[in-house]
Amino acid sequence: MGLAQITSSSSESSPFNENPFSGTERQERSDHSQETGADVAEPEADAAAASALEPTVQGERGLPLAALFLGMLASVRRGFEGIVARGWLNWWPFLGQEKRLERLIAEADADPKDPAKQAALLAELNKHSPESVLTRFEQRDHTVDSRGVAEYIRALVITNAIAEYLPDEQAGKPSSLPLLVDPKASNRSTRFAQELISTILFTVVVGLMWVLGANALNKYVGSLGGIGTSGVGSSASYAPKELNKEIIPEKNVKTFKDVKGCDDAKQELEEVVEYLKNPSKFTRLGGKLPKGILLTGAPGTGKTLLAKAIAGEAGVPFFYRAGSEFEEMFVGVGARRVRSLFQAAKKKAPCIIFIDEIDAVGSTRKQWEGHTKKTLHQLLVEMDGFEQNEGIILMAATNLPDILDPALTRPGRFDRHIVVSNPDVRGRQEILELYLQDKPLADDVDAIAIARGTPGFNGADLANLVNIAAIKAAVEGVEKITATQLEFAKDRIVMGTERKTMYISEESKKLTAYHESGHAIVAYNTDGALPIHKATIMPRGSALGMVTQLPSNDETSISKKQLLARLDVCMGGRVAEELIFGREQITTGASSDIHSATELAHYMVSSCGMSDAIGPVFVRERPSSEMQSRIDAEVVKLLREAYDRVKNLLKKHENALHALANALLEYETLNADEVKQILNPYQEVRISEQQEELALN
Predict the structure, then answer these.
(1) Do 264 and 386 contact (CB within 8 A), yes or no?
(2) Which end of the chain is more exposed for a tag (fewer CB within 10 A), N or C?
(3) Segment Disordered: which positions (predicted)?
């Protein structure tokens, strides 16, 4: 079969003729081909075929004639060339082979540069006179392509003339075969076919990639929710699945009884509950409740719990959303989700909308954050769009109130700002009693003592403390939680997890014991220092040892005396290393202490105005070079003075330093009472020595 015939047949039956970009069009073509076959018959042929195939007795007897008639109709439809190609004309005796051969010779001689006509003539000659094929081909007066070459080789084989050329090939001589093909004529059709096939394949591949990519993207966008078409001409069928779902409020069973440790914030929010229960009580006198309430405070203080408790106390629906849920990779998602949220809330009014971590979408707008700006704009529009009497209270929480956009926090939007601070001693006691009430406790558990020993802990820390203690008790196999497990949990939160399997050499352990003893002795003998909670040389976290200090009461402000005492405690470890092991043996273990001392001294000078040389000045982040030099000089001065004070102190209490270090080497961990028990005898001796010195003077 010739190349032109192969290409034609591929173009008729190739699946690449279908349009890969239109599923509807492809389906239509598929249905059309199923109805009519690969070729489209004329209406007359269809009618004849239908009548011939009717299941009647007469049709059954005339089945061979009908089949012949259908075959003739199909051949007629394909055209005269198809009839010639199938050799049907050879059936008729009055049209002989000589006339066909004469016609082919005339056509080939009339157009010697047409390779198709030359190939047709050579094929016909091969049937009658292969020698004529050799003669005509070797004259090289006509242009042939690969089909003509095939007929020439066929004639060589038939006449056995190909053996005449084999000796030349076997002897390594140049072949005496004539130049069979004109390169321009033979390659023209091949190149065209290759380019056509390459173009079709490229188009189909790109189309398939486009369709598959579009489908994958559509599925991904639909799974995200919150993005879809909007405006004129939009169709609901293209909307993501999540958008079509109804936004329903959260199931809430929290009340003010579940909120402990923040009585001031609860008291301020009680009027919101009263408004939701009885709105006419406020509107009767013309009062308006704030549209928005912003809860600020450190993480873990119970801001989200407060918002849920308000909704539970008032018995109204509660819609919860995190600030990060409004944003996705597509522009416009956040704005649409804000609209959907407020539309759902209006249907359930009176209700509460709570947006947690609102700084994710409500931070100060910047030029490069266009998508966030759109979300914030929509939020501002929605807050302006509902009136107080609609019964919708918008609440939000953040631990970064300073970065919120001023347009969001202005009166008329978030009118009221409520600070939820860490609980005090009484608040911590209430929180501990709440978390411990449903757990079996031993008789030695005292919630008041634990509350006093956990200053600075928030509600989340206390919940974690109780949970760690319960897990520890379960691991040990005891039936009740004891004070020992609670103390273990507190140490784990404050000091970190013990690393009992870590190998430490005796030399390193001894150096760590003296280092921590230096901290403890300075803290014990310095007025204004925090009380010692525990001293240990057991590695915890990234530290080889530590001395923890906890205030006896909640601190509201810190004096200069207390800050200087903290500087002295930081220097105690490095000074102890120098006194006991020499200046050449000091280690990097004091790097964190020096870092903390430097930060504290810089804070005292630049922020608190506790330097006579600088004065009561708050220094901005980037001061002038002159001011920075003066600040650095004051910081160095404070650190050197602290170092000298600690050095004199430890020289006077060197015996106590040795005793405490030996106790740490023996027991590894000492609590506050054990440290006092070791240091008190040396303290009494020191007091008697001071009294003797005063008497002599």
Answers:
(1) no
(2) C
(3) 1-48
Tokens of 124: 């016909």
Give the residue-averaged pLDDT of 580-601: 91
Cα 254 from Cα 308, distance rounded (Å): 6
Scanning the structure block, which residue is given the tokens 């779902």?
245
Query: pLDDT tens, 513-538?
Result: 999 999 999 999 999 899 998 899 98
Look at residues 137, 421, 124, 112 and name the one whose alpha carbon lies nearest to residue 264: 421
pLDDT tens readout for residues 94-114: 345 667 777 888 888 888 888
- Which residues are annotated as catalytic? 516
pLDDT of residue 684: 57
Average pLDDT over residues 124-134: 80
Q: What is the pLDDT of residue 10?
A: 37
Q: H or E element: which one contains 535?
A: strand 532-536
d(CA 269, CA 312): 13
Integer Cα distance of 601 and 623 in angstroms: 17
Closest by CA to 319, choosing from 294, 334, 298, 340, is 340
Do 142 and 105 contact (CB within 8 A), yes or no? no
pLDDT confidence band for 376 (50 / 70 / 90): confident
Strands lying side by side in the sheet with 532-536: 546-549, 532-536, 669-671
- Strands of the sheet with 392-398, listed across from one edge: 318-322, 351-356, 392-398, 292-296, 414-419
Compute CA 516 distance to the chain's CA centroid, rounded to the nearest angstrom: 43
Q: How far apart are CA 542 and CA 539, in angstroms?
A: 7
Query: According to the model, what pLDDT value does residue 348 have?
Result: 87
Sign of the dihedral defined by the CA atoms of residues 538, 541, 542, 548, in that order:
negative
The one-letter code for the residue type at 47 is A
- DSSP labels, 621-664: SS--HHHHHHHHHHHHHHHHHHHHHHHHHHHHTHHHHHHHHHHH
What's residue 75's pLDDT? 47
Bridge-based pairing of strands 351-356 and 669-671 is unpaired
Q: What number of residues does the chain have?
A: 697
SS3 at position 669:
strand
Task: Tell me the C-alpha to C-alpha distance, in Å, between residue 179 and each of 149, 152, 393.
Answer: 10, 12, 94
- Burial (CB count <10 Å: 0-12, 13-18, 19+), residue 349: middle
Q: What is the phi-psi region of residue 226: left when phi exceeds 0, alpha when psi lies from -120 to 50, beta otherwise?
A: left
Q: How far apart are CA 166 and CA 182, in angstroms?
A: 23
pLDDT at 688: 55
Q: What is the pLDDT of residue 620?
A: 79
Report the b/e string of 535-573 with b at 16+ CB within 10 A: bbbbbbeebbbbbbbbeeeeeeeeeeebbbbbbbbbbbb
Instruction: Name which of 69-73, 245-249, 264-268, 669-673 the model is least confident about.
Output: 69-73
Q: Shortest CA distance to 518 belongs to which of 539, 490, 546?
A: 546
